């Protein structure tokens, strides 16, 4: 697969790593990453056709991804995109927005700007403040669980069937994030569509476009349109929160100042967009992953139903096991050594969270869903200065939802084949048919 000095992935393996469809065939994707990690833990991925995308280092070992994530001076979130993009897609983004990322936000800023922007909402997302929204989240959780049971027409001893994704795991985190951003319920479908266009552009079912195999140009146009739409929408929310501030995070952003001045409009919109977008497809994927694991293991389901102290372990393991954010990219700020290779200033690197979270050197039997896994220092939330801002919220949402589900669902099993999305970036289940009885 690789030459000795500067290992280069063969074309078939490069395709397997970059094709959105590969991420829908999870086990064979994990086989590919196992092979690459064992043979060339840092390997160059290059296009068949020069110029199609800029060659980059694929990083698959847990220790290397962790080291990169924590060294924010050497591995930057700028100037090259933080999400893998083809040369053409970058050119379209530049054309559409004047930047090589479609949205300027926390994830594309580096120091000294990044910590100033991050500080604005950091306290809001800490567990102590999140206690103030716990009751509202519980109400939302009960509502989706009721709807799920109703849709399945299930009762005590009466099995019903329903798809967990459209009824629970997709709408619930969206309701939560929309609530904290002050978006009224009637606007949620629009936000859902826009977010799916932003993140799910590679999967026809998720993008809502109905177009199979979209070209990079079509995907970029779809995404650029979604960004514009988002920007217009949140400009209205910001104006309202400046006039009538509340306790929500939308008010914090609308009234924030950096270096004594309010945020420029594009940055403010970027802040809302990153929260709206990062906050729900991710949590949706790990929620569906947890439910699939429980449906596949009735004994574990019965155990956690009887002993809720097992729940935090299940939540954490579901996040590792499903790894909703599948990669982020970095740009090397200087020449450096990593995993036995010389990285040059300007090199582009892909941190594969999927590969890192399935590294057998860090996790025993990594493909097994093990709710008792300890320690479980996974990289699904990243690490270092950019570590997920919403990680406490994501865990809280999942715990509250599963408390509601475990109270109401009596038995649980798969009612069909779960389906994963075609996506190299944010991935996870798009269908999870379940058979269940309810109290
Ligand atoms: C950043 C994963 C839920 C907001 C990130 C990063 C990852 C991630 C991998 C990048 C970390 C890095 O570069 O080191 C996840 C997963 C989630 C989740 C797996 C659910 C299970 C949320 C939620 C929110 C959120 C609920 C907020 C409502 C953010 C923001 C960033 C971020 C704002 C950018 C932080 C920065 O660059 O400083 N997330 N996330 N995420 N996440 Fe999450």
From TrEMBL:
GO molecular-function terms, A-Z: cholest-4-en-3-one 26-monooxygenase activity; heme binding; iron ion binding; steroid hydroxylase activity
Superkingdom classification of source: Bacteria
Any one GO biological process: cholesterol catabolic process
Keywords: Heme, Iron, Metal-binding, Monooxygenase, Oxidoreductase
PROSITE patterns for the chain: CYTOCHROME_P450
Claim: Metal-binding is one of the keywords in the record: yes
Keyword Oxidoreductase listed: yes
Classification via Pfam families: p450
PANTHER family per the UniProt record, alphabetical: BIOTIN BIOSYNTHESIS CYTOCHROME P450 (PTHR46696:SF4), P450, PUTATIVE (EUROFUNG)-RELATED (PTHR46696)
UniProt similarity note: Belongs to the cytochrome P450 family.
Function: Cytochromes P450 are a group of heme-thiolate monooxygenases. They oxidize a variety of structurally unrelated compounds, including steroids, fatty acids, and xenobiotics.
Protein name in the entry: Cytochrome P450
Organism: Qipengyuania oceanensis
């Amino acid at each position: 697969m690789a030459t000795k000095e500067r290992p280069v992935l063969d074309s078939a393996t490069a395709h397997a790593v970059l094709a959105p469809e590969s991420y829908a065939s999870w086990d064979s994707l994990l086989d590919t990453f196992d092979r690459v990690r064992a043979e060339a833990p840092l390997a160059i991925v290059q296009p068949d056709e020069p110029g199609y995308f800029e060659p980059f280092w694929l990083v698959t070992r847990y220790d290397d991804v962790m080291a990169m994530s924590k060294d924010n001076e050497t591995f930057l979130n700028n100037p090259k995109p933080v999400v893998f993009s083809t040369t053409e897609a970058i050119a379209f983004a530049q054309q559409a927005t004047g930047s090589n990322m479609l949205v300027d936000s926390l994830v594309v800023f580096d120091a000294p700007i990044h910590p100033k922007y991050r500080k604005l909402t950091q306290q809001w997302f800490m567990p102590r403040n999140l206690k103030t929204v716990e009751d509202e989240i519980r109400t939302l959780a009960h509502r989706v669980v009721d709807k799920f049971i109703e849709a399945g027409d299930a009762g005590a001893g009466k099995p019903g069937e329903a798809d967990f994704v459209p009824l629970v795991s997709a709408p619930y985190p969206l309701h939560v994030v929309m609530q904290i951003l002050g978006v009224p319920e009637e606007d949620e479908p629009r936000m859902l569509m826009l977010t799916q266009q932003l993140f799910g552009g590679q999967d026809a079912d998720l993008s809502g476009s109905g177009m199979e195999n979209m070209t990079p140009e079509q995907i970029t146009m779809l995404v650029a349109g979604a960004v514009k739409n988002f920007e217009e929408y949140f400009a209205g929310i910001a104006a309202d929160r400046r006039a009538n501030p509340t306790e929500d995070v939308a008010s914090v952003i609308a009234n924030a100042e950096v270096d004594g001045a309010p945020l420029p409009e594009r940055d403010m919109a970027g802040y809302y967009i990153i929260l709206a977008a990062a906050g729900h497809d991710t949590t949706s994927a790990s929620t569906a992953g947890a439910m699939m694991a429980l449906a596949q293991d009735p004994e574990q389901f019965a155990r956690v139903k009887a002993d809720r102290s097992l729940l935090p372990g299940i939540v954490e393991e579901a996040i590792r096991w499903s790894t909703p954010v599948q990669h982020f990219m970095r740009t090397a700020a200087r020449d450096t050594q990593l995993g036995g290779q010389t990285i040059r200033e300007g090199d582009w690197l892909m941190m594969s969270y999927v590969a890192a979270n399935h590294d057998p050197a860090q996790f025993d039997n990594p493909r097994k869903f093990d709710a008792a896994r300890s320690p479980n220092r996974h990289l699904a939330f990243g690490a270092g200065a950019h570590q997920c801002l919403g990680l406490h919220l994501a865990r809280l949402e999942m715990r509250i939802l599963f408390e509601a589900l475990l109270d109401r669902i009596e038995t649980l099993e798969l009612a069909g084949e779960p389906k994963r999305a075609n996506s190299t970036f944010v991935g996870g289940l798009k269908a999870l048919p379940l058979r269940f009885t309810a109290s």
